[in-house]
């Protein structure tokens, strides 16, 4: 019986390791360009930033809105969101990204001497543990690379790393079907809205604001934005 349990755990760990290894190998081959990180849809970058900026502005209109001192960009890639969205609105922005060439490009794009550029962490989100407290933690087009268990754990760690009135923002593709959709090419999953809500609940997070990104091509997944705060906090 013990051997059977050990074998099940071993197989589960092996599958998880392959899931993350395949994703890392995929991104290692992707060029460090806007078109590369957006999967050939670099032309939607400006549209995306405008939608994100509008959403962030709505968050700042909340009665108990987050401060604008320190933000964290999770799965930052080449720093597209950091440079165009977060740095103009925060005193300092930290980045988390596991691909070294993306990090190097991000530093060049943002400028290593930019006073708004904070700490850059080279690590996958499944292993990342925030060392600071943040006003806003921004997670965009990256959480599909975490399995459900690791995603809940990551969100829990982010929840504990929020400043007073801090908010986690999730911006992700959402499938219109109830079933999980798996992409074997980049080793990622696309979740339904119901599944995302259940995961947020498991991580003890409440949704205080939602929106859908407008003006995207019709053949793309709908892109949802969620603003999350720790449960039992009332705005």
UniProtKB/TrEMBL annotation:
Gene Ontology BP annotations: methylation
Reactions it catalyzes: N-terminal L-seryl-L-prolyl-L-lysyl-[protein] + 3 S-adenosyl-L-methionine = N-terminal N,N,N-trimethyl-L-seryl-L-prolyl-L-lysyl-[protein] + 3 S-adenosyl-L-homocysteine + 3 H(+); N-terminal L-alanyl-L-prolyl-L-lysyl-[protein] + 3 S-adenosyl-L-methionine = N-terminal N,N,N-trimethyl-L-alanyl-L-prolyl-L-lysyl-[protein] + 3 S-adenosyl-L-homocysteine + 3 H(+); N-terminal L-prolyl-L-prolyl-L-lysyl-[protein] + 2 S-adenosyl-L-methionine = N-terminal N,N-dimethyl-L-prolyl-L-prolyl-L-lysyl-[protein] + 2 S-adenosyl-L-homocysteine + 2 H(+)
GO molecular function, one term: N-terminal protein N-methyltransferase activity
CDD domains (alphabetical): AdoMet_MTases
One cellular-component annotation, GO: cytoplasm
Keywords annotated in UniProt: Methyltransferase, S-adenosyl-L-methionine, Transferase
Stored InterPro entries: MeTrfase_NTM1, rRNA_Ade_Mease_Trfase_CS, SAM-dependent_MTases_sf
UniProt entry tagged with the keyword Electron transport: no
Enzyme Commission designation: 2.1.1.244
Family matches, as Pfam families: Methyltransf_PK
Keyword check for S-adenosyl-L-methionine: yes
Top-level taxon in the UniProt lineage: Eukaryota
Binding, S-adenosyl-L-methionine: 75, 80, 125-126, 140
Broad EC category: transferase
Similarity field: Belongs to the methyltransferase superfamily. NTM1 family.
Protein name from the UniProt record: Alpha N-terminal protein methyltransferase 1
Organism: Galleria mellonella
Gene label: LOC116413134
């Amino acid at each position: 019986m013990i051997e059977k349990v050990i074998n099940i755990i071993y197989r589960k760990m092996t599958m998880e390791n392959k899931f993350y290894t395949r994703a890392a190998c995929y991104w290692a081959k992707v060029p460090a360009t806007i078109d590369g990180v957006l999967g050939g849809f670099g032309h939607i970058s400006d549209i995306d930033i405008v939608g994100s900026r509008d959403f962030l502005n709505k968050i700042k209109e909340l009665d108990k809105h987050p401060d604008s001192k320190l933000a964290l960009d999770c799965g930052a890639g080449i720093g597209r969101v950091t440079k165009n969205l977060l740095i103009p609105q925060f005193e300092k922005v930290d980045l988390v990204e596991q691909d070294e060439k993306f990090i190097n490009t991000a530093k060049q794009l943002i400028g290593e001497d930019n006073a708004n550029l904070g700490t850059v962490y080279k690590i996958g989100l499944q292993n990342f543990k925030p060392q600071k407290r943040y006003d806003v933690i921004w997670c965009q087009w990256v959480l599909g690379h975490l399995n459900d268990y690791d995603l809940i754990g990551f969100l829990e760690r982010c929840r504990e790393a929020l400043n007073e009135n801090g908010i986690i923002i999730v911006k992700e593709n959402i499938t219109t079907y109830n079933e999980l959709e798996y992409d074997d090419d980049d080793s990622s999953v696309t979740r339904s809205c119901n599944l995302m809500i259940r995961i947020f609940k498991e991580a003890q997070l409440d949704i205080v604001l939602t929106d859908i990104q407008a003006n995207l091509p019709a053949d793309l997944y709908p892109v949802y934005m969620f603003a999350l705060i720790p449960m039992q906090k009332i705005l």
